[in-house]
């Protein structure tokens, strides 16, 4: 807190104050943030906090690309991977992030989020926007 208010930072190694002109960036999951926010000892920090919510990926095709990138830049790049493994893992991950829709299947919702058209296969499927409106800003 003193770094942002007074423009200097007091280190822990017995050195003098270091000049500071910047921002402090932190990240947290939702439950830890709520605990931090509800602690009265943190009121001074809360006046200086700007929250940027970054949702999880909700598209199977994008999730697969993330896994491929992680694999390609790791020691597992040449390891065998059964066909459909990344797609199955992606579907499982996406389903765990979605809110259950009313009058529709969560599987249809997942497919609509991945830009599939279900007009001919699932008459109960809603549009992308209808799913997003019902889910609110906390989905993902």
Structure, described:
This protein is mainly alpha-helical. The protein folds into two domains: 2-46, no CATH class; 60-135, no CATH class. Helices cover 43% and strands 3% of the residues. It has seven helices and two strands. The chain has a two-stranded antiparallel sheet with strand order 1-2.
Ordered list of secondary-structure elements with their pairings:
Elements: H1 2-6, E1 8-9, E2 18-19, H2 30-38, H3 43-46, H4 60-72, H5 85-97, H6 106-113, H7 128-135
Antiparallel strand pairs: 1-2
Helix pairs in contact: 4-5
Question: Key features?
Answer:
PrkA family serine protein kinase; mainly alpha; transferase; single chain; 140 residues; Prk_AAA; kinase; 2 strands; 7 helices
Give a concise summary.
Pfam families: AAA_PrkA. This protein has 140 residues and is an all-alpha fold. It has helices spanning 2-6, 30-38, 43-46, 60-72, 85-97, 106-113, 128-135, and strands spanning 8-9, 18-19.
Shape verdict: flat
Note the main sheet.
2 strands, antiparallel
Number of domains: 2
Span between N and C termini?
A: 31 Å
Query: How many alpha or pi helices?
Result: 7
Mean pLDDT: 89
Strand content: under 5%
Q: Could you give the order of strands across the largest sheet? A: 1-2
Helix % is 40-55%
Task: Calculate Rg over CA atoms.
Answer: 22 Å
Number of strands: 2
Q: How does the helix and strand content classify structurally?
A: mainly alpha
Instruction: State the low-pLDDT regions, or none.
Output: none
Query: Can you write the helix and strand succession as a string?
Result: HEEHHHHHH
